[in-house]
Write a structure and sequence with these properties.
Layout (H helix, E strand, L loop, with lengths): L3 E6 L4 H12 L4 E8 L6 E4 L2 E7 L10 E4 L3 H13 L3 E4 L15 H4 L8 E3 L3 H17 L1 E10 L6 H15 L31 H14 L5 E7 L6 E9 L5 H9 L4 E3 L11 H4 L5 E8 L6 E8 L3 H19 L1
Parallel strand pairs: 1-2, 1-5, 2-4, 5-6, 6-7, 8-9, 11-12
Antiparallel strand pairs: 3-4, 8-10, 10-13, 12-13
Protein name: Aspartate-semialdehyde dehydrogenase
Pfam families: Semialdhyde_dh (PF01118), Semialdhyde_dhC (PF02774)
Catalytic activity: L-aspartate 4-semialdehyde + phosphate + NADP(+) = 4-phospho-L-aspartate + NADPH + H(+)
Length: 333
């Protein structure tokens, strides 16, 4: 194949823009690029120094592309993904619509690329799930997993561009001693922490928390107990997670650290005595998942704690989708 004909649905959004950036950065073999949107077409996006017109998805000729990255709404994925795949397009969907469909593989390349098989439609997991399973997978393979408890500290960019603008606006209002009237979230996010992400659902867990549980189980193909608390914090980019694990086999912390250091997609950042720990600022604008604070639980046999941080717009969204297609390119050679 002499290059890949690529379409991006949601090309003007945060994730769509990041896909454009990373395709160029990784020198992905783009033969042609079609930028699509459900709204706001008539605009342009920039790719490799050129202005690409944004077209309305409703008039798209899907036979003109090989791969489509979907980074729009669940409704857009529900409507257009089946049409695209029916025309032979490989679709990597970042929305949540198909993730729990038993016929659609939910894929993180470092963990379960084998799940793709011959599928034309591939779902990319939630951002918080991706970074956690990348860190858990080496431990699962080496020691087995009995349970996971995770608390997330999620950046506002996970909500979207409007939330990032809201954080800036509210920060200025607080510093200037003005009254803050919340808009994006029910309460102010500046200088605050919101102990929930998404809407509350079954058993008072939020949608984000259920995603961490159900998506992890599907990716690992096991009924692993995963209990989650998702928290929104006043950070622009990069989600952080405090992850507690109970393993089936015993371990030495030094061996776990060494295992993670030599596992794909991870970088161990773990020298607390020297102040070397994973933080959102360091994770931003890169594709590796940072892991640190690796330590044994003091009271539970085979209990392990670690802190996991990743750029939610890159590895948590755009990069994961691109890596899936990169892994498929050899099949199309």
């Amino acid at each position: 194949m002499k290059g890949v004909r690529v379409a991006i649905l949601g090309a003007t959004g945060l994730v769509g823009q990041k896909i454009l950036e990373i395709l160029a950065e990784r020198e992905f073999p783009v033969r042609s690029l079609t930028a699509l949107a459900t709204e706001g077409h008539g605009r342009t996006v920039r790719f490799r120094g050129e202005e690409i017109p944004v077209r309305g998805v409703e008039s798209m000729d899907w036979s003109s592309v090989d791969v489509a990255f979907f980074a729009a709404s669940t409704e857009a994925s529900r409507t257009y993904a089946p049409i695209a795949t029916a025309h032979g397009v490989t679709v990597v969907d970042k929305s949540s619509y198909f993730r729990m469909d038993p016929l659609v593989p939910l894929v993180v390349p470092e963990v379960n690329m084998d799940a793709v098989g011959d599928a034309r439609l591939i779902a990319s997991p939630n951002c918080s799930t991706i970074q956690m399973v990348v860190a858990l997978e080496p431990i699962r393979r080496e020691y087995g997993l009995k349970r996971v408890i995770v608390s997330t500290y999620q950046a506002v960019s996970g909500t979207g561009r409007e939330a990032m603008e809201t954080l800036t606006k509210e920060t200025h209002e607080v510093l200037e001693h003005h009254t803050v009237i919340p808009t994006t979230y029910p309460t102010p996010i500046a200088f605050n922490v919101l102990p929930y992400c998404d809407k509350f659902g079954d058993d008072d867990y939020t949608g984000e928390e259920w995603k961490l549980t159900r998506e992890t189980q599907k990716i690992f193909r096991m009924s692993l107990p995963v209990s989650a608390t998702a928290v929104r914090v006043p950070v622009y980019i990069s989600h952080a997670e405090s992850v507690y694990i109970e393993t089936e086999k015993s371990f030495e912390v030094s061996s776990v650290r060494e295992l993670l250091a030599h596992s794909p997609g991870l970088r161990v950042v773990d020298d607390p005595a020297q102040g070397v720990v994973p933080i959102p600022l360091d994770a931003a604008d890169q594709d590796l998942v940072l892991v640190g604070r690796i330590r044994r639980d003091l009271f539970v046999d085979n209990g392990l704690h670690m802190f996991v941080v990743a750029d939610n717009l890159r590895k948590g969204a755009a990069t994961n989708a691109i890596q899936i297609v990169e892994s498929l390119l050899s099949r199309w050679a």
